[in-house]
């Protein structure tokens, strides 16, 4: 049984949908759920929603963070915010999974202060899944993993190599792939024109004999082909790529809506409605369950800022799966093996890190 | 409908010892979904329930332990328990056998004359509960000078409604005109109305007898659904919560509380689930921090005297309520005038939305 720690201060409708997701999860899933936020507001809201109080607990977070503050400012001016309180609860419980739609920068900064790091992982990576044309692994998983998508903007070659080891361990557990295919994201001219960090990572990955299969570089126009199970890049490029994919999907939606302007187009869209619904379902980010933040000794799920009930519920389900399959331990072992480290006990939190 | 209510918890000191030791305690229990885990949402469920043997019937976790604790043999002469169930009379034998297996001997066991209703063409009475249960409650009212009643029902039917009407009749807050309007709205058969009005004449204004009405949230209905009834109705997710409230009121001895805790534990309840339940009551203002501290002390004492492994419970309690130590949550108000017709119509509207529009009952 996992312990889900859910930040109810962010998400659609001021976090109300996060709370509703927690209530639904308390009725449907057999997990301990701790909702973090203003206790009085949560208790008042919960009275109106069907929930199971036997599985749901409230943790009070005194401070509320304003959306326009940056991470350092929030940690200084609102030190008892829901992200910090939630991460502290997660730090005390090995089976805890923290889920939040708060600002990724704040979650990363908070996690660096409060959670223990996996040995050999100097910087965290945010891993997002995206749909591909070719299924992955024995369970025909249609999603591939892209990391980092925003946790570490400035990366070194060492970071990229570590991300590869973490992503491969994650995919091996979640998608049940024996030897995940890992690729480095490059520009259109091959590795020779890539930045120094990518060249270094490429060289080290080729030289190593990892538990995964390194398939070399991949261009951005091939990421959805499914040639790689895990694509590794720095946080800046990953975020740009992910937003581009989401933007293309959103543009497709807008174009479909425009089809309503002409009768013939409307009829055509109507005839294709089943297929369009299937594609919409396939590309809907709310179905993916959030992005796991890898590199810490606890599972942390970051969902989009405007996440609704479905997104939170899927994030809770994925977080529980990460706990059940002991993915964090697998990542720890994968990184240790790659770097030739010994047994991987989680390091204590670094109070100096921000 | 004019009498101001008195808070029945008032005579109880914070230490919960102010109840007079020789007061009568009358416990009224519903059976299905309150005491027994029963499924009767489909015809198949109904048939299975009807054919079940006594040993196959399962009590809700902690229900029999709580009932046995409340019917403490040392106090039995001053305790009375009445079961009022919507199950047909033909099930009396098997239900009595089940209660006997659980070590519970009811003083009165009232079952519904469903076959008679069917043969007389009173089809509304087969499904309806208001006329039947209200009449049964008034019929079995214990006419003693010092009596405290604790009623137990569930959220699957109209128990909170019926029990509250009963309590307010005794308290003198529902006069004959108001009662007639309620019974008419609930479409109670004329014969039942006449009988209920006759009981009303006898019992109206007997006193503030009903201390608490516990509603077992078998369907996990939203808590707000019971807010209109005021503090007398306490919605509970499990009988550990019920035991905690009764312990605070001084109606349950520490050993009774321990027995319920042990029963919940053996039924698979983890310390975390019990701690969450306590936190829920505390956040709702139903239970006070001091009571949870007292409960923890009793549990700790039990460890040394009974050898129970309680540190996990104590740790879970501390973890759940520690951060809320300074919580000063006012409890729900004791309603002086409950809008019964409003509550009835609201519930009916909700059921119709569910039936005709498919809107989930729990939303």
UniProtKB/TrEMBL annotation, chain A:
Q: In which pathway does it act?
A: Lipid metabolism; phospholipid metabolism
InterPro entries in the record: FA_synthesis (IPR003664), Phospholipid_synth_PlsX-like (IPR012281)
Select a single GO molecular function from the record's annotations and give it: phosphate:acyl-[acyl carrier protein] acyltransferase activity
Localization per record: Cytoplasm
GO cellular-component terms in the record? cytoplasm
> What is the reaction catalyzed?
a fatty acyl-[ACP] + phosphate = an acyl phosphate + holo-[ACP]
Listed A to Z, the keywords are: Acyltransferase, Cytoplasm, Lipid biosynthesis, Lipid metabolism, Phospholipid biosynthesis, Phospholipid metabolism, Transferase
Q: Which GO BP terms apply?
A: fatty acid biosynthetic process; phospholipid biosynthetic process
EC annotation from Swiss-Prot or TrEMBL: 2.3.1.274
Q: Which family does it belong to?
A: Belongs to the PlsX family.
Q: Which PANTHER family match?
A: FATTY ACID/PHOSPHOLIPID SYNTHESIS PROTEIN PLSX (PTHR30100), PHOSPHATE ACYLTRANSFERASE (PTHR30100:SF1)
User: What is the role of the protein in this entry?
Assistant: Catalyzes the reversible formation of acyl-phosphate (acyl-PO(4)) from acyl-[acyl-carrier-protein] (acyl-ACP). This enzyme utilizes acyl-ACP as fatty acyl donor, but not acyl-CoA.
HAMAP family, alphabetically? PlsX (MF_00019)
Task: Share what the entry says about its subunit structure, partners included.
Answer: Homodimer. Probably interacts with PlsY.
Name assigned to this protein: Phosphate acyltransferase
From TrEMBL, chain B:
- Which InterPro entries does the record cross-reference, listed alphabetically? APP1_cat
Name the source's superkingdom: Bacteria
Q: What's one GO MF term for it? A: phosphatidate phosphatase activity
Q: Which Pfam families match?
A: APP1_cat
Domain named Phosphatidate phosphatase APP1 catalytic: residues: 30-178
Protein name, please?
Phosphatidate phosphatase APP1 catalytic domain-containing protein
State the organism of origin. Nannocystis pusilla
